[in-house]
Design goal:
The protein is an alpha+beta fold and 78 residues long. The protein contains 2 helices and 4 strands; from the N terminus they run αβββαβ. The protein has a two-stranded parallel sheet with strand order 1-4. Strands 2-3 form a two-stranded antiparallel sheet. It is globular and about 30 Å long. The relative contact order is 0.25.
């Protein structure tokens, strides 16, 4: 399943409806500050890393892997 122009509420709803085991986000980011999504007005909304961690934590029994591929993110040193 793919979601385009994802809003914050869309992300939560997609996780509830689809119950994925793997989540791949490809879009805009703000480095360690989080991801850039849209609000209901179509404006940019920053979603903090803490908020994302809490959201994905709600689905920890189902989601096995979260892959975040966002521009302006520092490269992985692993």
């Amino acid at each position: 399943m793919a979601e385009l122009a994802l809003r914050v509420d869309d992300l939560h709803r997609a996780l509830l409806d689809q119950q994925p085991t793997i989540v791949h986000f490809s879009g805009h980011g703000a480095g360690s500050h989080g991801l850039v999504l849209e609000n209901n007005s179509g404006q940019i909304q920053l979603v903090s890393t803490e908020s994302l961690a809490r959201l994905f934590g709600l689905f920890q029994s189902k989601i096995e892997c979260v892959f975040l591929n966002a521009c302006y993110s520092p490269p992985c040193n692993g």
